[in-house]
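Input record (Table S2, row 371):
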Amino acid sequence: MSNTYNIMMLPGDGIGPEIMAQVEKLITWINDNTDLTLKTEHGLIGGCSTDAHGVPLSDETLEECRASDMIMLGAVGGPKWDGVEYNKRPEAGLLRLRKELDLFANLRPALVFDALIDASTLKPEIVRGLDILIVRELTGGVYFGEPRGIEDLGNGQRRGYNTQTYTTNEIERLARVGFDLARKRGNKVTSCEKANVMESGKLWREDVTALHTAEASDVTLEHMYADNCAMQLLRNPSQFDVIITDNLFGDILSDEAAMLTGSLGMLPSASLGADGIPGVYEPVHGSAPDIAGQGKANPLATLLSFAMGLRYSLNQGDLATAIEQAAQNVLNNGTRTADIIAEGCTQVSTDEMGDALIDDLANNSAIKNAA
Ligand code: IPM
Ligand code: MG
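Output record (3-isopropylmalic acid complex):
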């Protein structure tokens, strides 16, 4: 029974259901062809949950998530819910899930596949071989800080405000994850904040420095202002190995890093908390309501997120690597969804891309019955 795991599936809104359908197919293949047994439960998150239950994440679904071994999420949001009050917006469901499970470390790897080098808007020599890992703080900062609100000042004037806060504990636990991951990669951490203007940034820099001295002096540490980091990501991205940063800067810098790779449709993510807490695995891209239901979406970011889940939550690193290799093979064969199409390649639908990855995996006999 030790090879049996429960996966909570939260397809969400927009293209969420069609990309998650590819993960369902992959799970069926794994159940049929390996020693693993992956059981799935399904729940609602985002706008579809607000429509059905009046809230973007119900207590029941949250408890099912907590009881699972890992959580796969598609995407949330769409113009349909634009007018909805803040705590019922689709995004609030995602934020609640992150906060309630205390998933403080968000891993966003930006990897440039050789086959996609021309899909990047940057010159090939700038992005070739790029392998950056952004570790974004996910449960603190201005996303959750109090006080927050919009107040009426009279005379037709209003004031909107949010609070950026970080404690030493929040900074240290995030930095520790960054240093640990760097040791398994290029052994370098770049810590990004705005210590030149923000007290929370000054504390961030001081606490990261202190932790580095106490626990991680074997890792190279560099500090960088977040605006400079945004610039350096375009100028010379290969200087980076692991970037640690706060919630808001991480949101922005990870979208920027994604585009180095050619498409937001390629970027997976993992949101991790304390040991024993199920991680949330989701593509970095959003719900893309403009193409929802048309079979145009690239499912690779979601399938690669699932691979991260196998690695980090289910301890199935070999199978994860095989899925990542299959994704690379499919791209090398010229199979492309619309977002990454190039001359001489074959354009396929969401469903066909899912099938292509599974077919390639099926040809990799090493993984069959070995997991
Ligand atoms: C992300 C998204 C979310 C965020 C939204 C959907 C709340 O942009 O995961 O990067 O801002 O964190
Ligand atoms: Mg974002």
